[in-house]
Specification:
By secondary structure, this protein is mostly helical. The protein contains 22 helices and no strands. Helix 7 runs parallel beside helix 11.
């Protein structure tokens, strides 16, 4: 019924076979899950809802989480393919900047500011392929100017590359942003760039990401009178809360989440729906991260409960709206009893941000699982259409 060659479950089975025909039972024992769970994931009937489970399975198979997700490696998706041709040139530009080389600027400052505004609008709408086309030249132009302009463009590059699945290059871009921000001693951009750094680290490095966020929080606290810094302190608390959850440190996660909520209550949602650097920090964003943290804990009921209190439309960034609907959809799909509601949520997620939804391996697997659970002649038309847009072929 479903083409599954590019699902997480299919990759798990592939790597299991590559490991001397490791049985499902052995893999389950090594990863700390049940054999039944592995079987259902491999068949596409069940999705992996927790990052920590992905880490455990990848470690048991002696591969990376990126190998299981297929991020940045598999051709065939038009959005990824249209961006991929620009990635080597982006990489080359990042290497040149990290090596300290600076080309003379070829455009006016007004043109540069206009291009930065344009690429930031593309970031807010999650048009990562269009961002990728602009980034090689824009990175080199920003490097010629340096300062907050380089920090901002490198941050944009890190965000784009991460969502396209190139985390190793996203990390390079984040380091460029950190270096540029530290050179001018701008605490707000230091906070933003270190947030990008923490976000770009592989899932396996969740504990390192949590420690990096914690160190940044300590260093930036002295500049908390600046509202931009306070927003980034809040974002760093949220990042530390999620990565601590992945690492199994719920006590630490709860402390960070409480600090983020306290800061958000004081600041409120940004009046323009964006805030400093489009981070959108405020009570709404805290609610969205709480949903993601509850999902990481496997608490689907809690995700649904939290969703009733969150209005993601107050934020400009479409990725935040997609996050809401995707987390809600996966929670509704858990157990297989509310698949119609889950499908409606996934449709909303795809409408909010089509490119990252199509590229998200977890979203893809969730749609496959819905199709696998539907009876052969009862696959809803809306599910068939959504799957088609994601390149998933369902039987007629």
């Amino acid at each position: 019924m479903t083409r599954k060659a590019d699902t997480i479950g299919a990759r798990i089975r592939y790597w299991r076979m590559r490991r001397g025909g490791m049985t499902q039972a052995v893999l389950a024992g090594l990863a700390g899950v049940s054999q039944s769970y592995v079987s259902q994931v491999e068949s596409g009937r069940k999705t992996i809802d927790r990052r920590s489970t992905l880490v455990a399975l990848a470690a048991a198979l002696q591969v990376t989480v990126a190998d299981l997700l297929g991020q940045g490696t598999e051709p065939g998706d038009p959005a990824r393919d249209s961006a991929a041709e620009h990635v080597p040139v982006i990489w080359s530009a990042l290497i040149e900047i990290e090596d300290g080389e600076r080309r003379p600027s070829t455009c006016t400052r007004e043109q540069l500011i206009a291009d930065i505004y344009r690429i930031d609008q593309l970031r807010m709408s999650c048009n990562y392929p269009a961002m990728a086309r602009m980034l090689p030249g824009l990175l080199l132009e920003a490097a010629a100017v340096g300062g907050p302009i380089l920090a901002q463009v490198a941050y944009q590059a890190s965000t784009c590359l991460r969502h396209l699945g190139y985390r190793h290059l996203a990390l390079n871009a984040a380091r460029v942003a950190v270096s540029a921000a530290e050179d001018i001693e701008d605490p707000a951009w230091i906070g933003a760039s270190r947030f990008a750094y923490a976000q770009s680290l592989p899932i396996e490095s969740a504990s390192l990401a949590a420690r990096a966020a914690h160190r940044s929080l300590s260093e930036l606290q002295a500049d908390a009178a600046d509202e931009r810094v306070r927003q980034m302190l809040g974002q760093l608390h949220l990042s530390a809360a999620l990565t601590s959850t992945v690492s199994g440190r719920m006590d630490v996660a709860e402390d960070h989440l409480a600090e983020a909520a306290r800061e958000a209550a004081s600041l409120g949602d940004p009046a323009d729906g964006a805030g400093f650097n489009g981070c959108g920090f405020g009570p709404t964003n805290v609610g969205l991260w709480e949903m993601s943290i509850a999902a990481e804990q496997g608490e689907s009921g809690r995700v649904i409960e939290l969703s009733r209190k969150v209005r993601p439309q107050v934020l400009v960034a479409s990725i935040r709206q997609q996050s809401y609907w995707l987390d809600l959809g996966r929670a509704l799909a858990d157990g297989g009893r509310r698949d119609a509601e889950a499908l409606a949520a996934f449709v909303q997620a795809e409408r909010a941000a089509p490119v990252p939804f199509v590229l998200n391996p977890l979203a893809r697997d969730a749609v496959v699982a819905l199709a696998q659970r539907a009876r052969r002649r009862a696959i809803p038309d809306e599910l068939r259409v959504l799957a088609g847009r994601m390149g998933i072929s369902l039987s007629a």
